[in-house]
Amino acid sequence: MFPALATHSTVFARTLPPGLEIRLMRESDLKAYKALRDAMLARHEEAFTSDAAAERGREAASYRSRLSGAGHCLFTLLAWDGRQLLGALSAECDGRAKIRHIAHIVGMMVDEAAQGRGLGHALMQAALALLAQDEALQLVTLSVTRSNTPARRLYERCGFVRYGRLEGAIVLPDGRQLDKDLMVLRLRAPTPAA
Ligand SMILES: CC(C)(COP(=O)(O)OP(=O)(O)OC[C@H]1O[C@@H](n2cnc3c(N)ncnc32)[C@H](O)[C@@H]1OP(=O)(O)O)[C@@H](O)C(=O)NCCC(=O)NCCS
Question: Residues with beta carbon inside 6 Å of ligand 1?
Answer without folding.
Answer: 40, 44, 47, 108-110, 115-121, 144, 148, 150-151, 153-154
